[in-house]
Amino acid sequence: MMTAPAAAAAPPPTTAAEEDADGILLLQHDALGTDLSYLRLEDTSEEQYEASLQKKVQALRERFQPYWSSTLTVFRSPPMHHRLRAKFGIGRVVTPKDDEEEEGEEEEASIRTATGTTAAAQKRTTGEKERLPHGGHTKLCYLMWGNDERPVAISSFPLASRRINELMPRLLLALETGPVVLRRGLRAVNFLDTLAGDTLISLMYQVPLLKEGRKRGREGSWAKAAGRWVRDGLGCQVVGRSKGRVVTVDRAYVIEEFDLFPSSSPSSPLLCGVNDDDEEEEKELGATSLASSPSHSSPSSVSPPFQPKPILRYKQWEGAFSNPNGHMAIHTLHWLCARADAVLEADEAEDGREGKDQQEDRSRNGSSNSLNEKGCEGGSCSSSSNKNQSKSNCDLLELYCGGGNHTVALSRKFRRVVGVEIDRRLVAVARENLLLNGIENTTIIQIPSEKFRVEELGRYRRQQEQQERREKEAAAAGVGEGVDVEDEKGKEGGEEDVYDFGVVLVDPPRAGLDRHTRKLVSQYDDIWYISCGPLSLLRDLRGESEEEVRQGSDKTFRSLSGFGLAETHEVIAMCVLDHFPGTMHIEAAVHLRRRR
């Protein structure tokens, strides 16, 4: 599963002396840093971005030269405003006051004396910046941590979406002028945006949102204030977080929409029909697709099979993983759909050749190879299914399926799909997204990929169905979720469903595949490998070196340690996905086919 570089490091621990009256981190101006060079914000212009991207691509090309030397498809990202997730620390920066401010303070003091207004009342009314007893004033700001681990105050973030940049100053103003309950103990802010325009803000606090003995007074007042000043004032969803507590004002998720079949997009004809020899068209798709496309999708006029809704919709929950670059998420789905069509077309062509050869054999041999009533030669039929199946009979196995981002799009391409995911929360999200898109040919199994066994799939499904049934009954009875499921190992439970997985898709964490999963996927004819850590992909292709074997922590499958996928498969397509412009990170995807 893809992991992203954090937009901001976690704030370091502070002492009470470093906090203001509201419990917010207090920083002297001369204590701030300026070094955010690891983000390479200077690469945000088109020309500089292209030069930076070519350096990353060239380094990747050289590493993978032994396995892929043909055209390398490059999917570009917009250099600016591509990031849909961003997390910042919150603090107050102390700035010294000048002579004009001192004169202003004297004038304000005389006005307050004449009107009988206290300084605190005036501050609450006007949202005036907090002044310190020793002089100067403070300003609420966003913080990131630089290479020297010093906080850097920022007012905007060019890598984040335009919507996030628009909300950043407006949120600070709402926090400054709104009720103190919104900013007391505030430590960080997390923005979650979408290409569809749905946005959620998470406010993260050091102090609890609910204190014992107060009859939920703080929680209730926070929710009321957040609903008025953030949800209604800024037009987005808002969630409050403190240790062990989450308070939701309306909903804790956003809805993302991906249009894979845009009627007006110049790249739509190449969406799901890229062949291996269409190198120039494939390069054109990667170079131009979303870098110049609008942020919001246009309705589609093409209705794909198995899926009545051409626009894919996803629930992205606060706190759960989602792709931080929606443009590149669409590029990835484009590439996977194209590979699916290439696999299915190749299988149909091979089936056609086999059928033609059989017909010619029967013509040459006359009646010696007569057909029985079932149409099988020699009076018997094989019960095993053909590995090279037509589009409607081919199944997909997806490991590390996460919240179903790829699953939803690919379900229309295969007869049935099985997704495997270890994270219980992501399993629930994936099932929600299947329902949201009306998909009924897909099953999500919660189990670690290294423990998955195809032959146990029937038992996994029975356990899952029984657990879901018991949890529904418990929820209806007011017991809650988390009911234990009886171990059904060894039970027959009826006839097993027969799957024929012609393709396996893996999208592992940055560390790559473990040894057992590497051996498992090598059993399939076609492997699609999405890698957020190209060095791990390289290791999985060539096998571990002796030094990696000695240092490896995986002792369970040591006998598989030297095995690499390149021993059984060859790379027939490869692309580069620039998920993180402005950083050194880059992703790659390969299509591996079994050696004949």
Describe, in plain words, how this protein is organized in 3D.
This protein has 13 helices and 18 strands. With 596 residues, the protein is of the alpha/beta class. Helix 4 (162-177) packs across helix 5. The longest helix has 40 residues, at 326-365. It starts with 24 loop residues before the first strand and ends with a strand.
Total of helices: 13
Q: Largest sheet at a glance?
A: 8 strands, mixed
Output the radius of gyration: 29 Å
| Secondary structure tally: strands | 18
Average the pLDDT over all residues and give the rounded result. 75
Q: Rough shape? A: globular
Q: Poorly predicted ranges (pLDDT <50, ≥5 residues)?
A: 2-17, 117-135, 211-216, 264-309, 367-391, 479-496
What percent of residues are in strands?
Answer: 15-25%
| End-to-end separation | 30 Å
Based on helices, strands and strand pairing, what is the structural class? alpha/beta
Specify the helix fraction band: 25-40%
Task: Spell out the key features of this protein.
596 residues; alpha/beta; eight-stranded mixed beta sheet; 13 helices; disordered N terminus
